[in-house]
């Protein structure tokens, strides 16, 4: 149900971003977040474990981890290089958190448990990015508060999903 609510939330964010005049974020919300969360809802529902009617999380194989890591580093390097060429002050952290924002939902849709670890990494990097922004302009404090709150929520979700995953593994083994 979470991905379905998330897809609806993406539509609300799209409207808010358009109202605020942040069109790239609006495009990302409607063209990426909305469909990926909707696909996650249907994919998780279709691939649910019959006994519990919930998605079965799985671990990535070494080959898949290497693929995602190499792809991430290549794309991150390209985005960071473009941002640095444009003299963007937050090129490294912003490009990294941006890319995680695309990778994590895809890994979530594919039900790879590693998404939970990467989500924490993304939030920690986001807090560091927000700290940099506040140092340069104290008016950006709202973003830092949001970043810390998001990290708190993600840690709570991490604990819940990891607990669920461990129980699921016991059920699947027996």
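Sequence proposed for the structure above (174 residues):
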């Amino acid at each position: 149900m979470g991905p379905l609510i998330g897809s609806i939330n993406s539509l609300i964010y799209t409207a808010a971003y358009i109202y605020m005049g942040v069109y790239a974020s609006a495009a990302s919300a409607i063209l990426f977040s909305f469909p990926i969360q909707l696909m996650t809802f249907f994919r998780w529902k279709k691939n649910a474990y019959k006994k519990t009617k919930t998605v079965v999380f799985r671990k990535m194989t070494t080959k898949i981890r290497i693929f995602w890591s190499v792809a991430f580093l290549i794309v991150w390097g390209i985005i960071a290089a473009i941002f640095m060429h444009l003299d963007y002050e937050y090129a490294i952290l912003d490009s990294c958190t941006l890319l995680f924002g695309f990778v994590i939902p895809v890994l979530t849709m594919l039900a790879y448990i590693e998404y939970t670890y990467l989500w924490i990494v993304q939030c920690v990097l986001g807090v560091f990015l927000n700290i940099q922004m506040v140092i340069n302009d104290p008016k950006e404090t709202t973003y830092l508060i949001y970043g810390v709150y998001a990290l708190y929520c993600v840690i709570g979700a991490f604990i819940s999903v990891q607990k669920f995953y461990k129980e699921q593994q016991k059920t699947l083994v027996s």
